[in-house]
Amino acid sequence: MRERAVQRHDRLLALVRQRGSARVTDLADQLGVSPVTVRRDVEALAGKGLLDRVHGAVSWPRERGVRGRAPVGEGRVLGLLAPSATYYFADVIRGAHEAAARAGARLVLRISDYRPEEDPARAEGLLAAGAEGLLVAPGWRGPGDPVEHGGWVAELPVPVVLLERNVPPDGPLAGLDRVCSDHGHGVLLALRHLTEQGHGVPLLVARADSPTAIAVREGYAAALRALDVPGPRPVIESVPAETDPAGFERAVRELHAAVASGEATAALVHNDVDAIQMVQRLAELGVRVPDDLALVAYDDEVAALADTPLTAVAPPKREVGRQAARLLVERLREWGDGGGGADTGAGGVAVGGDSHRTEDGGAVGEPAPRRHLALLPALRVRASCGAGAGGA
């Protein structure tokens, strides 16, 4: 797939920022493009004030400093790195934009398209654009991605808040601020609703290609234990119908067999799109929702628009964005008040310098403790569980 200009620009900025300066010919070799292309890119970036040109080489602008900050006196600039600007993350981005605007800050967005290996370059592009702090939702997909593709986040030289991402408790990112939906609680809401209607062990139909999907899977067994329900049943592996029609059909057939045999009368399906398509396909196979199968979708992006409106777990996506942006603005204010400093990075630990103590033992200008903020999803009750309209 051909690299887009913005992606190449981000990689170029990352190289120059790391080195301080670089020759055009060296950059061409590193980027795998012609010197003519690099000169054209440099001209465009220099025109925006993101690079300085000097006789066949380029350098990082002195007025931006090592942190790539915007000039003093302008409104704060917050950077947001997201894996997508559609579906789930559209509301997260809206919430962050709203909170940034209320704080008088500007939000700058970069999209990784779920390619975690490109996240560092996207982040460098945000820093080059003047971002003073970053909201980061890495493009992780699998459970091993935080370890394989996450170390760079801890090395960022500005305050960072992780968005909708959990990390290993013993890893380098564990001490960062983060704001997430508590998907385990969301699964609990769904299973409790189904079991209280008299269903046995609900089945879980889920993907395995995103942090949300992984969290839903992890929450399934924990929720059944909390409800004292025997189980769990094996997860029915789902895949996107548009990219793997055969795999999606296998998941539908497995769910159909469980209902036809009387093994299951209820299911939780991640995500909305898969749930809607499964309901349509099950109807063709003679299984009706909610008459034969009570179904809850997870995400609540388009669940209400199904022919039979789907009960759905709704993570507080917009509020996640709002709370994360507010927290980042607070961290930047601490930096401005002396809580950070030139030797303070993403981990928020100041190196060197003196601090005065308050009466309660805290240090004047000392940053507040890091926060792991978990926001609870809601359950939107609709017709797909046979419970009628309403809310829970």
TrEMBL record:
Annotated TM spans: none
The HTH deoR-type domain, residue ranges: 5-60
GO function terms (MF aspect): DNA-binding transcription factor activity; transcription cis-regulatory region binding
Signal sequence interval, chain numbering: none
Keywords: DNA-binding, Transcription, Transcription regulation
Origin: domain of life: Bacteria
Xref: PROSITE patterns: HTH_DEOR_1 (PS00894), HTH_DEOR_2 (PS51000)
InterPro entries assigned: DeoR_HTH (IPR001034), LacI/GalR-like_sensor (IPR046335), Peripla_BP_I (IPR028082), Tscrpt_reg_HTH_DeoR_CS (IPR018356), WH-like_DNA-bd_sf (IPR036388), WH_DNA-bd_sf (IPR036390)
Pfam families: HTH_DeoR, Peripla_BP_3
PANTHER family: ALANINE RACEMASE, LACI-RELATED TRANSCRIPTIONAL REPRESSOR
Official protein name in the record: DeoR/GlpR family transcriptional regulator
UniProt source species: Streptomyces rimosus subsp. rimosus (strain ATCC 10970 / DSM 40260 / JCM 4667 / NRRL 2234)
